[in-house]
Amino acid sequence: MIEGTLADMAAGFSVFHPHRSTRKLAVFGSSRTTAAEPAYALAVELAAAAVAAGFDVMTGAGAGVMEGANRGAGRGNSFGLDVQLPFEHETNPFIASDPRLLSFRYFHTRKLFFLRETAAVVVLPGGFGTLDELFEALTLIQTAKNPPIPVVLLAPPGDNYWQRWHSYVDGALGDRGLIAAQDNYLYCSADSALAAMNHIRHFYRIFHSSRFEADKLQLFLNHAIKKTDIELLNQKFSQLLLSEKITFKPLNHSDNAVAGCLELCFDQRQMGGLYALINHVNSLDY
Question: Which residues contact 163 (CB under 8 A, 6 or more apart)?
């Protein structure tokens, strides 16, 4: 298992390293969706819109929704993260034999690269595997093991798949206190490719990326923040802080695309609150 895991990781690093600077969108959904279904056409439209917005597209390389997304993105803008299975194992023709196709021995290494490389996740209706990928993303985000990224639950107009999922999560998990109320901020819903991409673009409107530096979380921004807006952040989001205050640190290096970063001693139990803070920053009038 160790040898297979290391081989999977070596292959993944080799394929992705030249493309680390390109943002990528991971698309999850059922392999059983047929080309005649609305979800397939929606996956094609979503991937094409993502490429137009500067993203590459990653899928599980299979049929159905995955095929639609690779089809919409086209070769040169697609990655396929296949996994070796005893059944339902079919690489779709839009990523087959592509140099950016990976075939993983294990699900755990495949999941590692999906979340390590992605800047956004869009999930269309699917079965156990699709929900596994969704809950994996939400779990790693909720526990601060994955940086904040937008997670969009997408279904065609009139399809109540995600409404039923919301009812279960809110009733069976939320009402029992098994998740926090603010965990609802970790994801959003959309019924069109345009709405999904608008949410993703808004997420990165001012917010750029994040990292932990020593004991502080740094939120890198595309725009400098005024002192009055920093004061408002400290008023509205003081509950997210373990100590001190939110500060803004300008970055003036000519080789750095970001304008600066917010620094905060962040309580890592409150990822939903962090998403609310990011949304507030992205909504500032700059």
Answer: none
pTM for the whole structure: 0.95
Quick check: 61 and 82 in contact, CB under 8 A? Answer: yes
Calculate ∠ Cα 226-231-235, nearest 5°.
Answer: 145
CB 265 within 8 A of CB 244: yes
> CA Rg, the chain, in Å?
19
Determine contact, residues 151/118, Cβ cutoff 8 Å. Answer: no
- Cβ-based neighbours of 22, under 8 Å, separated by 6 or more: 54, 55, 56
Tell me what pLDDT residue 86 has.
83
Question: What is the rounded CA–CA span in Å between residue 252 and residue 259?
Answer: 7
pLDDT at residue 257 in the model: 73
Which of 162, 172, 267 is closest to 212 using CA atoms? Answer: 267
Q: Who contacts 33 (Cβ-Cβ below 8 Å, separation ≥6)?
A: 39, 40, 43, 63, 64, 65, 68, 124, 125, 126
Residue 249 pLDDT level (bands cut at 50, 70, 90) = very high
d(CA 32, CA 24): 24
Say how many residues make up the chain: 286
Tens digit of pLDDT for each residue in 265-285? 999 999 999 999 999 999 999
